[in-house]
Structure formats: structure tokens, C-alpha cells
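Figure caption, in words: inputs first, then the predicted bound structure.
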Amino acid sequence: MNLWDTHMHCCYSGDSSEEPDDMITAAMNRGLSGMIFTDHLDWDYTPDPGLFDLDLPLYIEEMTTLANSINSYTGFYVGVGIELGLQPHLAKRHEQLLADHSFDQVIGSTHLVQGNDPYYDSFYEGKSPKEAYESYFNEVLQNIRSFDGFDTLGHLDYICRYGMRYYGKEKGACRYSDYASCLDEILNFVISRGKSLEVNTGSFRSDEHATDPNPSYEILRRYYDLGGRSITLGSDAHVKEHIGIAFEEVSLALKEIGFTEITYYLNRMPHTYPL
Ligand SMILES: [Zn+2]
Ligand SMILES: [Zn+2]
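Bound structure (zinc ion present):
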């Protein structure tokens, strides 16, 4: 099966120490057709200032050199992208960044809600699941309305991964119907601007009982029903063992929803392969 992993982090990200060449070898051994590194850049990451700053010139130069050395002598393709941590006040800086630097694929992700990361338990203290999730989806909407320079919208229901850990699976379950109007606005925005929606299999990294990627199949079905056809697929691997995690089973489920192809970006241009 022709599969690309288009979301992963190596040692240029503040939360990974994996060597990029080890990840490339792992992806080749995994039988993938290509991969795109998307290291973190989260300016003004207030919970841990500087953790997700990226040494851009070094990252681009070293990764492009490495990618070129692979791409010129194998049939395997390595791309150099980025995962931007969106915040409304960063819109102009992100626009400038993308005007100044070339990437293969740009993921736009919301990691912070008014400066707090739902990754941490402290985010949920004193909040009901509905309040917590609603604030997150509202922040996503505000972020993409402020800045639409990304190619694919990263892990739309990111908060549910950690909300379920905090509240428990039942209480922390995220039902589309509870946030329908906000989620529809987000999905319609993605569709009308010609962006892709990312299917992120990172939930399968730490939870052996995980059933859904991010966003959930329920949200992905809604996206499809609204006319959304363009999806990207990424593992969000931070170690080589997680590259391509659960891709086969998730691909089958996507096919059942009705999706017929997966998109990946090279030099910011969309390409597809059949599901
Ligand atoms: Zn992310
Ligand atoms: Zn990521």
C-alpha cells in the first residue's frame, strides 16, 4: 500500500531526541513511500517559554541537505515541513515566516487556549468537559480565521486525547453534537479555503485501547458529509517506532466513510495517492 507519513518530529523539536536519519531508516523499513518532517515551532509557548522555538536556518539547511541526499538516490521521498503552533496574535509573524522560508508541508495546529496547553491537567481544573472542549474549539476557529496560511489543519480534536485522560473515557468523551455549530464552522472553513484536514494517528501511540484518530471518525464523517474530501495522514511520531502507527486500520476506516484518496504536500503543492 502506498502510504506517506506527513507529521513527525525529530531532535529539532523541543520534545523529541530522535535522530532524523534513524527515522528515515525506520520509515523505509516500515514500507512507506515517503515521509515529511514537521518539527514544532510554537512561538510564545507560555507554559514552558522557548521549549518549542525552532532554530529555523539550521533546521532547514540540515534537513534539506539530508532529504536531498536520500531523494536523489532512492525511490523514497523525504520532505521538510513544519508544524506551526497557532495563536491569534502570531498571525502576522507566521505570514512573514512563510514568505521568508520554503517548506514542503505546513501543518496549522492549536496547542494553546489563551496561553494554556490542554496537554497539562491544570488546564481542566475547575472546568466541565464541555467548558474545556468548547474553549478549545473556539480557539481553533479564532486561530484559522486569523491565519489561513497552512496546508492542513492539525489534529482538530487534540484536546480530547488529554481530556479523556483527565476526566476518564466516558465523562471525557467528545461528541460532535455538543459542539456542532463551532465544528461545522471550522470544517466549512477548511473546505471553502481549499485546505486539508489532518487525520492524526498519534492517539494510538500511548493508548492501546484507542479506537479513533484525531479528529474522531464522527467528525471525519461530518467533514465528508459537508463536502470535505482532502485529508492528510500523519502519525505525530516523536520516536521512530511510532512512524506510520495504525495507518492500515485507519485507512480502511477512512475508505468506509467514503474517502478515496490521501493528500500530501510537496513544495506546498497538493499531491494524492489512492486509498
Ligand atoms: Zn501538534
Ligand atoms: Zn506534532
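The chain has nine helices and nine strands.
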